[in-house]
Task: inverse folding
């Protein structure tokens, strides 16, 4: 077993065991106190990868908003994997959207129009493929509420 000295960082001998836990490292917790506990980190990591996979699939399928899943994945990775969180936040295409949303709830106007257009396309499929007027009305109400929420989000940060 390898041992590390507390007095001399480069010297290895029989004073202090080296910690090699992949899920929780004391230095990581000191650097990032928002990390989850040892048993929660694998759960957050799994949910984060699931949301990331759903987000990637949703980016290919035009009727599902993928950025929502990427924001959820970033939130899960912030509690489990700082490296994955950093990768998503610095992604060349989606990083700025995620950072803006997490910091102040900003949605660019172009993103708002894309969200509304995909919701209208989704609703048109539901309208033509579903015979139940109750389902159509319920979906329309939910989508109108979401559209109102999306449209009220700020498009840029106000100068102080």
Result:
């Amino acid at each position: 077993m390898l041992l590390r000295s507390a007095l001399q960082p480069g010297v290895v001998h029989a004073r202090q065991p080296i910690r090699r836990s992949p899920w929780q490292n004391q230095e990581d917790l000191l650097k990032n106190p928002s990390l989850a506990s040892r048993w929660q980190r694998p759960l957050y990591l799994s949910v984060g990868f699931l949301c990331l996979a759903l987000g990637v699939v949703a980016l290919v399928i035009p009727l599902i908003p993928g950025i929502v899943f990427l924001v959820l994945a970033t939130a899960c990775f912030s509690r489990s994997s700082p490296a994955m969180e950093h990768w998503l936040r610095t992604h060349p295409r989606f990083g700025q959207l995620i950072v803006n949303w997490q910091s102040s709830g900003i949605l660019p106007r172009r993103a708002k129009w894309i969200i509304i257009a995909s919701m209208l396309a989704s609703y048109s499929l539901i309208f033509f493929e579903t015979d139940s007027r109750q389902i159509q009305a319920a979906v329309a109400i939910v989508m109108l509420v979401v559209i109102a929420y999306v449209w009220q989000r700020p498009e840029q940060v106000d100068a102080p």
